[in-house]
């Protein structure tokens, strides 16, 4: 089912076909000089899929306010439709990651069918025990899986099990658990006991995992708890995942670290330990800013992909990370931002694929720091745009997705169908 008229895409592409062909051929020539086959790189990038966050297609907000945009999705079906547009134009996002109970639905099979009509499947399903839902018996104000009260913990466990059941109906294969549990004051919480309680609850969720499922533990430095967070860093996440068992792994959200933390090194450690679940890609300057991937620090994203490509190149056993976006949009059209982020993820991957691994290994072994860093950077400094354009073109997408999207008038069209949301209030997005 086409959400954007294919003729419009074709017409839009028609203007640029020749340029893309020439640019691609030229890049192919340059890469051949380095012994790299441009078509092989393109095929590998084409095989990379990154999941869209269902919560990302609405306008987010800051802690202070939310400024809705026109045509915001009213419900999960609208969200899927917007995701379908992103996939149709940018061809990099074949799956969606749902967030329960933000995504409500009375007929999950119908949702699955609608998704497949847009060419979409479902990636990891996310639970939410960081905000209270209407009518729930116990409040998460002081935590969920690690709460001091057993009834609250039970409720949080039951919610996660329910998410697994929903995910099963959608074809998901993983549950992502991020909790806002922690404390705001020194002394508020017994730090060790809170972690023990978390583990005890997480164990019950782990036991409910169906065959073939994984449990992704997502750490976060702070927020909404500002003094201590129960799963604060990759160390706590790793301890928890190890205690739970082989199907529990650590998810790295790029925005969940202190500003100067070396994220690629964390990635390398987790790969080495067989505990890398996957990613929530986004970018940030100060904290969990949820900015578009690569918008602030594209080199950092490249360095993360360098670790991933190296692991695949070296055949690390069991290496199968899940790639997802997790971002929030305050000043852009979410569809445009998500298409941009997906392309940025592809770009970083392509650049990392260009790193000449043998030369890098040799320079590292010889302790030639300068040559090693130059070899690594050569990948990053290569403009791989023609590869990305070609693979979108080959897959029936748009050479320039944002331009095609703007020309399609999709946002204005849905703005007529979807009533405007009222501004104000805080976002609830953290
Ligand atoms: C959190 C975390 C989770 C996401 C929520 C919306 O900070 O990143 O992954 O589900 O935000
Ligand atoms: Mn996240
Ligand atoms: Mn976050």
From TrEMBL:
<protein>
    <submittedName>
        <fullName>L-rhamnose catabolism isomerase</fullName>
    </submittedName>
</protein>
<dbReference type="InterPro" id="IPR013451">
    <property type="entry name" value="L_rhamnose_iso"/>
</dbReference>
<dbReference type="InterPro" id="IPR050337">
    <property type="entry name" value="L-rhamnose_isomerase"/>
</dbReference>
<dbReference type="InterPro" id="IPR036237">
    <property type="entry name" value="Xyl_isomerase-like_sf"/>
</dbReference>
<dbReference type="GO" id="GO:0016853">
    <property type="term" value="F:isomerase activity"/>
</dbReference>
<keyword id="KW-0464">Manganese</keyword>
<keyword id="KW-0413">Isomerase</keyword>
<keyword id="KW-0479">Metal-binding</keyword>
């Amino acid at each position: 089912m086409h959400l954007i008229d294919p003729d419009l895409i074709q017409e839009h592409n028609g203007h640029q076909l020749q340029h893309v062909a020439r640019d691609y051929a030229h890049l192919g020539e340059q890469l051949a000089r380095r012994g790299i086959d441009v078509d092989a790189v393109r095929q590998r990038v084409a095989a990379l899929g990154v999941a869209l966050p269902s919560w990302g297609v609405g306008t987010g907000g800051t802690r202070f306010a939310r400024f809705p945009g026109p045509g915001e999705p009213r419900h999960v079906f609208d969200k899927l439709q917007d995701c379908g547009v992103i996939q149709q134009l940018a061809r990099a996002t074949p799956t969606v990651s749902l967030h329960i109970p933000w995504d409500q639905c009375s007929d999950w099979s119908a949702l699955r069918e609608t998704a497949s009509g847009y060419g979409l499947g479902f990636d990891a399903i996310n639970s939410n025990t960081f905000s209270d839902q209407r009518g729930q018996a116990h409040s998460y104000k002081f935590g969920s899986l690690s709460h001091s009260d057993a009834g609250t913990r039970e409720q949080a466990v039951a919610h996660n099990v329910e998410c697994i059941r929903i995910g099963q109906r959608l074809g998901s294969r993983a549950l992502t658990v991020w909790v806002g549990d922690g404390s705001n004051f020194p002394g508020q919480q017994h730090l060790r006991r809170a972690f023990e309680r978390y583990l005890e609850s997480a164990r019950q969720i782990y036991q409910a995992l169906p065959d073939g499922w994984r449990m992704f533990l997502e750490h976060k430095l702070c927020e909404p708890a500002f003094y201590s967070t129960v799963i604060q860093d990759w160390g706590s996440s790793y301890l928890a995942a190890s205690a739970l068992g082989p199907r529990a792994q650590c998810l790295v959200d790029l925005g969940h670290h202190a500003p100067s933390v070396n994220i690629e090194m964390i990635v390398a450690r987790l790969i080495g330990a067989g505990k890398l679940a996957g990613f929530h890609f986004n970018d940030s300057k100060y904290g969990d800013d949820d900015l578009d991937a690569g918008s602030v620090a594209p080199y950092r994203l490249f360095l993360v992909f360098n670790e991933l490509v190296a692991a695949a190149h070296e055949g690390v056993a069991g290496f199968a990370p899940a790639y997802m976006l997790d971002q929030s949009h305050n000043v852009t059209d979410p569809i445009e931002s998500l298409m941009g982020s997906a392309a940025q993820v592809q770009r970083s991957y392509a650049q990392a694929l260009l790193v000449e691994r043998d030369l890098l290994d040799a320079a590292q072994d010889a302790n030639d720091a300068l040559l090693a860093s130059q070899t690594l950077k050569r990948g990053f400094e290569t403009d791989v745009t023609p590869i990305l354009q070609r693979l979108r073109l080959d897959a029936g997408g748009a050479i320039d997705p944002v331009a095609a999207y703007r020309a399609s008038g999709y946002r204005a069209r849905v703005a007529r169908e979807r009533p405007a949301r009222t501004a104000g209030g805080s976002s609830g997005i953290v």
